[in-house]
Amino acid sequence: MLNNHINKIIHIDMDCFYAAVEARENPSLQFKPLAVGGVSKRGVLCTCNYIARKFGLHAAMPTNRALQLCPGLIMVPPNMCLYKEVSREIRAIFHQFTDLVEPLSLDEAFLDVTDCKQYKGSATLIAKEIKRKIHATQKLTASAGVGPNKFLAKIASDWNKPDGIFVITPEQIDTFMPKLPVNKIFGVGKVTAAKLNKKGISTCLDLQKLSLAELKQLCGGTWGLGLYDLCRGIDERPVEPNRIRKSLSVERTFLNDINELGDCINKLPELFSELQNRLKNLNMPIKTQFVKIKFHDFTHTTAEAAATELTLDQFISLFHKGYLRQQKPIRLLGLGVRFCEPKSSNCQQESLAF
Ligand code: DCP
Ligand code: MG
User: Fold this and answer.
1) Which of 86, 103, 138, 298 has the most other CB atoms within 10 Å of its CB?
2) Do residues 105 and 13 touch, judged by C-beta distance below 8 A?
3) Nearest ligand to the C-alpha atom of residue 16
4) How far is the CA of 145 from the centre of ligand 2 (A)?
5) Are the C-beta atoms of 34 and 74 separated by less than 8 Å?
């Protein structure tokens, strides 16, 4: 990181993710204490909604205990396929702003929007727009944190949960950090916090007063070094999109299902130019192009054809092909490409990790 260069990182974390998806699917559950998890006697909670949290319930609590604390609790077994699909759609929203997306789990990701030109480059406005888009298309709420690094962005997303947004600017670090309790530092669990508390260390200011050598002695070499930076709000870890890209697609979930074929075709040019823009930066050889259609009843189909150069016409004919298979109102449209395998003989690309 250059000294005069300030990164803009967003952390997004969905609110009571599995429970919120279940309540969306079954609105009669919306205002009741609700948990997702193992319903058997030996089961545990994956998560619960915020109403259930008022009774002291939390993730990983045994179901039996949860039912004792909250007798009116409604338990739903997890539906991982559904959560994965929602997660994929949310990630597609992130990618409308940057390809520097590092997912941490199904419901959480870091985004590096330092070079994002949208919304005049304002990370706060981008985070607000991401929250808006998630709510408009998924009927779910997310919390967002904005900061100059991953550590601060993650703390910020937790600050105003649920449905919150919190921004920590570089100028605020020196007033924000000293007051922060040590247990807010990711990695400082109950055991470390108790150990530190015993020594009279409860805030980051207390930690800042220790020398590096003292911290290393107290917490071990590597962790001591990490803490020395973190308690000052310093974190230089980059956002790492950690997979080898095999495909790239752009997609839209519509606010209302689209019934008219013509209306759908009118959406294609905009998606096409968005796809072209994203591809410009990658410079990777293409193997196929495809159109993905998700219908109102969540069934979906993909029409695909070999391609080296992309054309809108080919996407339009693929769209017709896919649509004719079901001819139902459309919930989501996507355009994408698959790339040549990194080691395939007819493509020269060496490593496509980024
Ligand atoms: N999860 C799980 N078991 C755990 C913790 C979490 O199965 N011990 C699942 C269920 C959660 C999802 O992962 O819905 C996301 O985890 P989070 O920690 O982000 O928790 P929530 O999204 O449920 O709640 P919050 O609003 O606090 O983020
Ligand atoms: Mg969450």
Assistant:
1) 86
2) no
3) 1
4) 12
5) yes
